[in-house]
Amino acid sequence: MTGVETRSVARDSLFLLADVRVEQNAQTHRVRVRNLSDGGMMGEGQLRVQRGHRVSVELRNIGAVGGTVAWVQDNRFGVAFDEEVDSQLARRPPQRAEDPAAVVTPASWTHRAPQPPQPSTLRKL
After folding, report:
1. pTM (two decimals)
2. What's the domain count of the chain?
């Protein structure tokens, strides 16, 4: 392989975990995503796949993405996504289902100052 870049789609090198499910199999496998583009990814892990297998990949902040295994080499494999995704979303911290600004935190009484003393209980000096 030469040092000339022949891909037409930019890839992001990163390290994140994803869950992959091979079609026709209910079991999910945790894999490392080594690089990610809008059109596909390279995964690494103890997952036995073959070229042409249909997979579903659960990516952080993106969700489930369908695709086809394009290549396999040792414990690495490439997946071509069925539809393009916004690969930059996976780089962001995990998003909560709720808007943090909309979450109301209940009042906590554990660190509240004590009540002032009653004047009738005070001693005169």
Report:
1. 0.66
2. 1
